[in-house]
C-alpha cells in the first residue's frame, strides 16, 4: 500500500516519519480487522487507507496508545462500510462469496490467531450484524480484552460479553467439525482429479449427502446463479462440462489458511476454487468466477503484508 500524505497537513519531516513508522508496524493488524469484517480485500484496503489519512491529521501527541486508537478507527470505519455493503449485495447476481486472500506468507493475516479467516466461516459471519461481527473478530482473532472492545464499540463490557457469547453460539450452530490442513489438501486433490477425469462415482464418495456448491460470478456466463444442493447434483455439476476442465492449468495456492486451486486457461486465471470439509467428507464447494475477485486475490499478498 502506498501511504499518501494528506494535502491538508504539513507535519515536520521527523513527525511524519514517526507516524509512518507506527502505522507500518500496525498496518497488518488493521488490514486483518477490516478484512475479517468485510470479506473483501479491496474494501479492507480502502478502510486502511482512510485510517492512514486520519492518522496524519490526528494530534498524535495526545494519543496514549496508537494500537488502541488505530484499531478503534479501523473497526468503526469497517462497521460503516459493512452496513452499506449489505445494501450493495442485495443486487449481486447469484451467490456472493468473500474475496479470498493469499495467506502463503502471512497465515494469520495480521492476527494473534488465524480465527475468522477461512472462507466458509467468513460466509457464516455475514449473518451477524456488523457490531456482532466486530466484537467476535476482535475477541477471537485478535484477543482484545472485553474492556478494550467495549471502548472501541462504545458499549458496556457486559454487553460485549453477551454479544460475543451469542456470536459463538450462532456460529457453533452453523459450523461443522473440520479437518486438518493435510486432510483438506488430500480431499482437494482428490476432488480435482476426479472432476477432471469425469469420475462421478469417486466424486460422490468424497461428498456428504447434503453437499452444496456455491458459484460466485455476479452474472458471468457459466456460473450457477443458485446454490447446487445434494451429493449427486454437485458431482454431476463438477463433471457436466468437459470443456471446463479441458486445457486447464491447475495451480495450487494458499488462501485464507487453507489449500485452494487457481485455474488458468490460455495463461489467464479464470477460476478460484476451495472447499470446506468435516470428517464426514466435503460439504461445501466454493467457486469464484468473478474476474475482479480473482484479480484481488492475485494482488492480495501486497495488501496482506503491506
Automatic annotation (TrEMBL):
Residues 25-82 form the RNA polymerase sigma-70 region domain. CDD domains: Sigma70_r4. The keyword Endoplasmic reticulum does not apply. InterPro entries: ECF_Sigma-70_Domain, NTF2-like_dom_sf, RNA_pol_sigma-70_dom, RNA_pol_sigma-70_ECF, RNA_pol_sigma70_r2, RNA_pol_sigma70_r4_t2, RNA_pol_sigma_r2, RNA_pol_sigma_r3/r4-like. Gene3D superfamilies: 1.10.1740.10, 3.10.450.50, Winged helix-like DNA-binding domain superfamily/Winged helix DNA-binding domain. Residues 120-171 form the RNA polymerase sigma factor 70 region 4 type domain. Keywords: Sigma factor, Transcription, Transcription regulation. It holds the Pfam family Sigma70_r4_2. NCBIfam families: sigma70-ECF, SigX4. Interacts transiently with the RNA polymerase catalytic core formed by RpoA, RpoB, RpoC and RpoZ (2 alpha, 1 beta, 1 beta' and 1 omega subunit) to form the RNA polymerase holoenzyme that can initiate transcription. Belongs to the sigma-70 factor family. ECF subfamily. This is RNA polymerase sigma-70 factor. It comes from Streptomyces shaanxiensis.
Amino acid at each position: 500500500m502506498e501511504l499518501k500524505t494528506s494535502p491538508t497537513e504539513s507535519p515536520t519531516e521527523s513527525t511524519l516519519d514517526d507516524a509512518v513508522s507506527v502505522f507500518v508496524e500496525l498496518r497488518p493488524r488493521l488490514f486483518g480487522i477490516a478484512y475479517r469484517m468485510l470479506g473483501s480485500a479491496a474494501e479492507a484496503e480502502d478502510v486502511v487507507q482512510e485510517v492512514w489519512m486520519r492518522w496524519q491529521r490526528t494530534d498524535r501527541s495526545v494519543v496514549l496508545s496508537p494500537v488502541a486508537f488505530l484499531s478503534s478507527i479501523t473497526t468503526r470505519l469497517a462497521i460503516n462500510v459493512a452496513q452499506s455493503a449489505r445494501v450493495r449485495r442485495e443486487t449481486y447476481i447469484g451467490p456472493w462469496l468473500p474475496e479470498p486472500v493469499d495467506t502463503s506468507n502471512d497465515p494469520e493475516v495480521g492476527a494473534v490467531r488465524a480465527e475468522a479467516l477461512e472462507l466458509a466461516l467468513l460466509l457464516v459471519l455475514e449473518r451477524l450484524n456488523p457490531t456482532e461481527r466486530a466484537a467476535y473478530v476482535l475477541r477471537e482473532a485478535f484477543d482484545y480484552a472485553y474492556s478494550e472492545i467495549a471502548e472501541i464499540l462504545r458499549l458496556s463490557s457486559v454487553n460485549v460479553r453477551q454479544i460475543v457469547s451469542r456470536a459463538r453460539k450462532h456460529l457453533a450452530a452453523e459450523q461443522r467439525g473440520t479437518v486438518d490442513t493435510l486432510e483438506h489438501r488430500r480431499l482437494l486433490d482428490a476432488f480435482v482429479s476426479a472432476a477432471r477425469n469425469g469420475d462421478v462415482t469417486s466424486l460422490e464418495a468424497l461428498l456428504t449427502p447434503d453437499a452444496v456448491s456455491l458459484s460466485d460470478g455476479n452474472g458471468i456466463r457459466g456460473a450457477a446463479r443458485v446454490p447446487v444442493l445434494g451429493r449427486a447434483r454437485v458431482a454431476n455439476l463438477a463433471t457436466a462440462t468437459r470443456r471446463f476442465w479441458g486445457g486447464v492449468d491447475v495451480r495450487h495456492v494458499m488462501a485464507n489458511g487453507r489449500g485452494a486451486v487457481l485455474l488458468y486457461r490460455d495463461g489467464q486465471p479464470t477460476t478460484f476454487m476451495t472447499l470446506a470439509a468435516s470428517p464426514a467428507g466435503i460439504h461445501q464447494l466454493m467457486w469464484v468466477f468473478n474476474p475482479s475477485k480473482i484479480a484481488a486475490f492475485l494482488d492480495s499478498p501486497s495488501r496482506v503484508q503491506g
